[in-house]
Amino acid sequence: PAAEIGVIGLGVMGANLALNISDHGYEVAVYNRTVAKTRAFMAEAGALSEKIIACDTLEALVDAIRPPRPIILMIKAGDPVDQQIAALQPLLDRDDLLIDAGNANFRDTIRRFKALEDSGPTFLGMGVSGGEEGARHGPSIMVGGKRDSWQRIEDVLTAISAKYEGEPCAAWVGEDGAGHFVKTIHNGIEYADMQMIAEIYGIMRDGMQMEPAAMAGVFAAWNDGPLDSYLIEITADILQTQDDESGKPMVDMIVDAAGQKGTGRWSAIESLRIAAPAPAIEAAVGARSLSAMIDLRTKAEAVLGVPGQGEFDLGATTLDLLEKALLAGKVAAYAQGFSVMAAASKEYGWHLPLPVIARIWRAGCIIRSRFLDDIASAFTATPDVDNLLLTPEFAQIVTDTDRALRAVLAEAIRKGQPVPALASAVAYFDQLRRSRGTANLIQAQRDYFGAHGFVRTDAEGEAHGPWHSEE
Ligand code: NDP
Question: Residue 53 needs a FRET pair 20 to 30 A away by CA distance; which of 65, 171, 295, 357 works?
Answer without folding.
Answer: 171
